[in-house]
Every structure is written in structure tokens, then in C-alpha cells.
Amino acid sequence: MSAPLLRVEGLTVESRAGEAATRIVDGVSFALRRGEILGLVGESGSGKTMACRALMRLLPSSRLALAGGSVELAGEEIMGLPEAAFRSIRGRRIGMIFQNPASHLDPVMRIGEQIAESVRFHQGGRRRQANEKAVELLRQVGIPDPAQRAAAFPHEFSGGMRQRAMIALALASDPEILIADEPTTALDVTVQAQILRLLKEIRDSRGLSIIFITHDLGVVAQLCDSICVLYGGRVCEIGPKREVLAHPRHPYTAGLMACQPGTAGGSGRLRTIPGYPPASDALPSGCRFHPRCSHAVSPCAEVQPPLDPFAPDHLAACHNPVRQASLRTRETA
Ligand SMILES: Nc1ncnc2c1ncn2[C@@H]1O[C@H](COP(=O)(O)OP(=O)(O)O)[C@@H](O)[C@H]1O
Ligand SMILES: [Mg+2]
After folding, report:
1. If DSSP codes are grouped into helix, strand and coil, which group holds residue 105?
2. Structural domains of the chain, with CATH
3. Does 333 score more than 90 pLDDT?
4. CA 42 to ligand 2 centroid distance, Å
5. 1 Cα: distance to centroid of ligand 1 (angstroms)
């Protein structure tokens, strides 16, 4: 199998408040192959955004610091690069789109101009060629009448069209990797499905690799090739999507699935996992999920479980993993 395009190892982010420091991202590791869509999934507060911001070196506060980890892009270690060198990676080789495109588009600049400016910034060339490329990108992301719509301002676009424009802007630098942080969470279901289809098309046509952040396991089931489940800033389960969704080993993954009406293991009605995710200043000892876990056994409160293999590339960190028999028992119970 080919070497991964991106390899993240032991990524750790500390949040400091006075003397105390807590690891809000704690030893997160995953790999992304060329053309792969990896779903980073977990409830709100599980560290999805911070893990990706850490690898882009865009931590949003001086209280947060990168406390360890390695990031390899196409075999090259990029974590130790000086900031000036890192700028040729961030936004260029790795692009980003967000939940709220409006806050990342300039409200007083025409959409086409913003994209053309990014094209020129990354690739140089003449204004006219950049304008043509901008229109072409708008066409590729499914904006109708792209030549006319390029002259519009962001507020003249609907939410879905703004997200398409944001995707076009991210593609202007022709990145190898796109990090999409809950890009469809603010959209209605129909528009969400259109954007997911668009991302798949872009993956297919450009061979782009995508890290797709979502709290919605249903979206992962539709879109992704592999899945990385985060809880309390740690990876609790990772593997090929089919394998993980067919044989979830971590009770948290199984719990997320039970909350999904559509997927295997789903109960057919909406449920939630009892309890709440931990606050960053009150992370539990041992397995961070243990206070909410119906499977918890004696070591769980004290000993952090290692990520153990269950099948090729399928790992879960649990002292008392789910077995298929116990899944069935709970369903019939
Ligand atoms: N600016 C910040 N300063 C300190 N802690 C933060 C900040 N932003 C988020 N956090 C904390 O980091 C943890 C992970 O948050 P985040 O990565 O945003 O979660 P997710 O994207 O999975 O919803 C949470 O406990 C959150 O409270
Ligand atoms: Mg987030």
C-alpha cells in the first residue's frame, strides 16, 4: 500500500490556565492517503477542530499550545518548519473550509475577485487569467451562470452557494488536502446532500484528500472512506469506515451509532448517549469516556486504555470492547 500523504502522530495540545495544563488534544494519530476522505467524528467539544487547527498551526488562543506530535506531509516532517516555510503549506497545499463561510469571505469584495486574488497569490499570472480561472472554479463547484455570479458579493449568495464559493476559494491554490470543518452543519438537509456530493466529485476529479470534521455519523457513513472517532481529545476508535460501522469496538462509537436512526445498530428513533462530554478543565482520569460508559470495568477509571488492533487498520482504545454478541443483546433488550 502506498505511503500516506499525511501522517499525524501523537498530536497534543495543552490548554494552560495559571499553573494547570490540560491536554485538550492528547496523542492524536491518524493517516490520510491520496484521494481518501477521512471522517473526524465526535460530539461537540471532543477536540476535532483543535486537532486540525493544531496541525495547521492555527491555535486560536495564546492559552493553547502545541505540546507534541509529528506531522508528515508527503514524507516530509512539517511540524518543525519555521513559520515562513509553513506558509507555503497552509492554505496552499492544505486548504480549509468552515461551518460558516460568511466569516471567511470578505463581505465587501466580489466573490470572483476574492478567488482571482487567491489564484494570483498562489500561482501568479495575469489578472485576466486569474479572473478566468475564478469563473472556471465557480463553474466546477456548481455555481450557475458563473461568469455573472462572479460579480456578486457574498451576501447576495444563499448559504449553500456561499459554501460552494468557499470551496472554490479553497481550491484556488490547487491544494492536495482539504480540511472541511463541519461545512454542512449550518445547511438544510437537501443543500447538505448537494455539498457532500460536490466534495465527492472534487475528490474523484482532482484526487484530493479530505479530512471531513463532523458530529454526524450519518454524514460519515455517506461520505467517508475511513473514520476516526475522538472523545475528550483522544482517538477512541479508528479504521476503515465499513469495518468500524459494521463492527464498532468502542462503546462510544457504538453509542454514537445507536443515536443514528439510519445506520446499522441504530435504534430507529433518536437517542443520545446519557451524560455530557467532559469540560476541558475536568477531563476524567483513565479512559475519558468511563463516567458515561455502560461497559466500564474496574481499570477504566484509572488506566488509559491503549489503542489495540481488532482487524487490519482497525484500532480501538477500550478495556472492555464491544463484541458483536453484546451489540445484539442490547438491541433486543
Ligand atoms: N479558544 C479556546 N481556548 C481554550 N479552550 C478551548 C478553546 N476552544 C476550544 N477549547 C476547548 O477545547 C476542547 C476541544 O474543542 P473543539 O476542538 O472546538 O471541539 P470540537 O471541534 O470537537 O467541537 C473543548 O473542551 C473546548 O472547550
Ligand atoms: Mg469544532
Report:
1. coil
2. 1-93+176-262+270-333 (3.40.50.300), 102-174 (no CATH)
3. no
4. 9
5. 35
